[in-house]
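We treat protein structure as text, and this decision shapes the records that our systems exchange. Such a record has a labelled line for the sequence and another for the backbone structure tokens. The record that follows is passed on verbatim for readers who wish to inspect the format:
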Amino acid sequence: MIGVIPGVAPFLLMSGHQLADAARLLPATRPDPVGDGISVVLAKPGAPAPPGAAWIPARSALPALPPQTQPTALRAVAVANWRDQSRFCPACGGPVEPARLHQRDVSPNDGPGQEGYLCLWEDRAVFPRTDPCVITAILDSADRLLLSHAANHPDGLYTLVAGFVEAGESLEDAVRRETLEEVGIEVDAMRFIRSQPWPFPGSLMASFAAWASATEIAVDGAEITHAAWFTRPELTHALASGQVTLPMDYSVARQTIETWRSGNLVGL
């Protein structure tokens, strides 16, 4: 049993016999399945944590979980955030509740039905929203990496340029737009690396490597306050001296940076 706070409403990750105790531990709760035999149990804002659990921020809870549990926990945070903010059908305003979806809503290979959400007024399947984002390791011809500091980040925290994909925009076009808008860099080639769900509050991060056509930096001054090119030794020195810190280990940003530091980014 793990208690975390993703947003306004706290929730627990519960499995097995714990679910049978959910109503006793947290009155007026509702279990939402997220897979692997685990459900999210939402609590009312301000509810005391049940015995054996404590409310802690989701970003702090996730690194403490075993690696094999983190994917389910990421789904759970995404579901909890969406359920907390999307209690009604976006089409008709009817209430949305967990339900076994009808056969017509699933493919024949999924069996008699699948867990999901149903608008109780229109008998319509409703699915959690996911917002695509791109996050880019910008490289130059000398294999230096560009790292940036965002205005809303703690002092010294540097990461990759990232941003939401706009309506009607491809992932590749979003990479070009975000790198130009935030750090004034045009890129002339790119490749997809990996993706990661990032439920803060409900994104899917698509990581790219992109090669700059020029190296002069011009930050936007609003979202990004500073950016700089780093060689591997320069970044190692900046980290050792405390001048720079990097994103949390389980984030795709950190994983991409560490892949570059190991010299394996281009070979992926």
